[in-house]
Amino acid sequence: MMPVVQLLRAALKHAGNRPPRCVMQTTSAVHGVRTHASSCTDGDKPKVLITGGLGQLGVGLAKSLRRRFGKFNVILSDIRKPPNHVYNNGPFIFSDILDYKNLREIVVNNNISWLVHYSAVLSAVGEHNVALAKEVNITGFHNILDIANEHGLRVFVPSTIGAFGPSSPKDPTPDLCVQRPRTIYGVSKVHAELMGEYYHQRYGLDFRCLRYPGIISADSQPGGGTTDYAVQIFHAAVKSGHFKCNLRSDTRLPMMYIDDCIRATMEFLEAPDDVLVSRTYNINAMSFTPQDLTCEIQKVLSDFKVTYNADPVRQAIADGWPKALEDSAARQDWGWKHEYDLPQLVQTMLTHITLGNKLARAF
Ligand SMILES: NC(=O)C1=CN([C@@H]2O[C@H](COP(=O)(O)OP(=O)(O)OC[C@H]3O[C@@H](n4cnc5c(N)ncnc54)[C@H](O)[C@@H]3O)[C@@H](O)[C@H]2O)C=CC1
Ligand SMILES: CC(=O)[C@H](N)C(=O)O
């Protein structure tokens, strides 16, 4: 069992999210085109739609956005049925991003002003179903882009470390460099970055994109990526004390705790237009290998054992990805700063999972 002091420290840390700033409405001229004014003031809160909201990241982001803008100003959507705790906690709507007409109806009927586009097929699943990844990540994204442009929305689309490939500089990977990814996921994300930036300079679309590292969360499960091991390992450590890792022990990848990811997204969404020198930014927090992560977990759970059985598809993907992202532009332009490093990540994840399991057993 974890010491009470550690539990409290993690709980305080969890509650200590910086209050986001409110931003005045802004317009700016970009190549002779005025960008849409879609920021908020206190009296004019944005109406936010999150697509693909039932995945690893959407529910957590909705919770933070609702705290900031009000429960009924943030609509979660997906093609799956939500669990009761999500359904009962705020507006949820069915939305298939491949259905253009339905998407447009949702945007119009709900007076949406910000669109957070989370629907995607991730790297490992994408390699097993290229046709699906192409449809969701490219055709679906085109629908999002056109609807956002048609209705003057601010649109946030996450990119990923997977938008880089074996020929990109790896340690660290700068914002601007060779991008020749070798997965359909990566190709579709580079396409999204370029199309979004093109619509921004051509039509003034308020397109915003962050390249996320692998995201680690306790309350939500990852959806079929290459970095999923870094979530699964914690559940195995607490539940069985043994984990079979599908990447080699020395595979170093950039990672981030979900609270940092959500805070980055909120701060970037609210950043005034005129501080954004670029529309696509790297954000970085920590990098580690499965071996580093195992050693850190063993500081708390000394009997924890890991065996390695690399999955060839995931290993090939990981071998082409950055080891760390260079993110000085995000830090300089809009004040990005991560809070969680590897020791804090491990303490927080083990605390949440242990507490969550105890609560689940109690009910
Ligand atoms: N989780 C991570 O480590 C990282 C995530 N990202 C990006 O962040 C975004 C969110 O990621 P996660 O939540 O982890 O993804 P996820 O795979 O957990 O969830 C994606 C969601 O999209 C939904 N979806 C699939 N097809 C759809 C369709 N036709 N219409 C509407 N929804 C559909 C799925 O039902 C699922 O709930 C994605 O764009 C992903 O590429 C980027 C880097 C790292
Ligand atoms: C890093 C990502 O984009 C995602 N977690 C994946 O592994 O596919």
Automatic annotation (TrEMBL):
It catalyses: L-threonine + NAD(+) = (2S)-2-amino-3-oxobutanoate + NADH + H(+). One of its GO terms (molecular function) is L-threonine 3-dehydrogenase activity. Its EC number is 1.1.1.103. InterPro entries: Epimerase_deHydtase, NAD(P)-bd_dom_sf, NAD(P)_epim/dehydratase. Pathway: Amino-acid degradation; L-threonine degradation via oxydo-reductase pathway; glycine from L-threonine: step 1/2. It comes from the Eukaryota. GO terms for biological process: L-threonine catabolic process. CDD domains: TDH_SDR_e. It holds the Pfam family Epimerase. Residues 48-283 form the NAD-dependent epimerase/dehydratase domain. Catalyzes the NAD(+)-dependent oxidation of L-threonine to 2-amino-3-ketobutyrate, mediating L-threonine catabolism. Belongs to the NAD(P)-dependent epimerase/dehydratase family. This is L-threonine 3-dehydrogenase, mitochondrial. It comes from Oreochromis niloticus (Nile tilapia). The lineage of its organism: Eukaryota, Metazoa, Chordata, Craniata, Vertebrata. The gene is LOC100711012.
